[in-house]
Automatic annotation (TrEMBL):
Protein name (record): Olfactory receptor
Segments forming domain G-protein coupled receptors family 1 profile: 45-297
Summary of the function given for this chain in its UniProt record: Odorant receptor.
Entry GO CC: plasma membrane
PROSITE patterns given in the database record: G_PROTEIN_RECEP_F1_1, G_PROTEIN_RECEP_F1_2
InterPro entries: GPCR_Rhodpsn, GPCR_Rhodpsn_7TM, Olfact_rcpt, OR51/52/56-like
Residue ranges of coiled coil: none
Organism, scientific name: Tupaia chinensis (Chinese tree shrew)
Length: 324
């Protein structure tokens, strides 16, 4: 559709050209404005969450520490793609260096893998808090929490490094135009002169193992949580126990459901789902969770909401209406 209007190169390109959202060029300015607003909210919201948890000793518990790490990962995830997207949509600066493209790809995949692992760690935290409340502080110590975070990060690095290596060593001797808003793996792989099947299979199998195992363990955690909750004799105790999981469930839904929809749509092909719909869904998958996660936790978690309000009052009016 767009290939005939672009030049082709006969050797590995120094740069790739990111088209943005093919077919929606007329809406690029509005998309740039929307993405800029969402990115600003993501930066401010996640930074505020991190600041409040870091400054308030009463919030330095495993659940909030995991949330602090999640906020940092969300900033990395959004920052790896949104500034370049806005540049493409607003100023038409669509070129990205060869190394920059694969660096962006690496950070996107690694951030999503880390976030999936953190959601599993947070599910385990809720399981211990509800099913084994008397042993909570003994099981989830600061050392255990840090170890879980490190393992999740190492897992993402080990899993994603071979993919980036395989992709960067593919020969690119044809078009350097990526029909996407960022260096998405499949979109870049289609430009290779060699068969990208090994890297595609590695990506599919690797992501299926990581996300599949995380979702399976999360499901087991919540089955045990629900069994424990409905075993409580008091209705109010049941509601209170379930409410502590509400924010986590909403955040999981925001992360996994759009991702699954985006993957399913991309596998359907352009004959069934238009290319601009596929690209737009992939873009929103990386932007919506970092934007909404701090809002969800800020609105639904009383302790964080109160501390944020106290911090804002101190910043703008020089006093706090809440005790620490």
């Amino acid at each position: 559709m767009l290939g005939t209007s672009y030049n082709y190169t006969m050797e590995t390109p120094d740069t790739f050209v990111l088209v943005g959202i093919p077919g929606l060029q007329s809406s690029h300015l509005w998309l740039a404005i929307s993405l800029s607003a969402m990115y600003t909210i993501a930066l401010l919201g996640n930074t505020l969450i991190m600041t409040v948890i870091w400054m308030d000793s009463s919030l330095q518990e495993p659940m909030y520490c995991f949330l602090c790490v999640l906020a940092a990962v969300d900033i990395v995830m959004a920052s790896s793609v949104v500034p370049k997207m806005v540049s493409i949509f607003c100023s038409r600066d669509s070129s990205i260096s060869f190394n920059g493209c694969f660096t962006q790809m690496y950070f996107v995949h690694s951030a999503t893998a880390v976030e999936s692992g953190l959601l599993l760690a947070m599910a385990f935290d809720r399981y211990v808090a509800i099913c084994k409340p008397l042993h909570y502080k003994r099981i989830l110590t600061l050392r255990v929490m840090l170890l879980m975070s490190v393992i999740v990060t190492i897992r993402a690095v080990i899993a994603m490094t071979p993919l980036s290596w395989m992709m960067s060593h593919l020969p690119f001797c044809g078009s350097n135009v990526v029909l996407h808003s960022y260096c998405e793996h499949i979109a870049v792989a289609k430009l290779a002169c060699a068969d990208p099947l090994p890297s595609n299979l590695y990506s599919l199998i690797g992501s299926s193992i990581i996300v599949g195992s995380d979702v399976a363990f999360i499901a087991v955690s919540y089955v045990l949580i629900l069994r424990a909750v409905f075993g409580l004799s008091s209705k109010s105790a049941q509601v209170k126990a379930l409410s502590t999981c509400g924010s986590h469930v909403v955040v999981m839904a925001l992360f996994y459901l759009p991702g699954m929809v985006s993957i399913c749509v991309s596998w359907q092909g352009q004959d069934i789902v238009s290319l601009h719909t596929q690209v737009l869904l992939a873009d929103l998958y990386l932007v919506i969770p970092p934007t909404l996660n701090p809002i969800i936790y800020g609105m639904r978690t009383k302790q964080i909401r109160e501390r944020i309000w106290s911090l804002l009052m101190r910043c703008f009016f020089g006093h706090s209406n809440l005790s620490s």
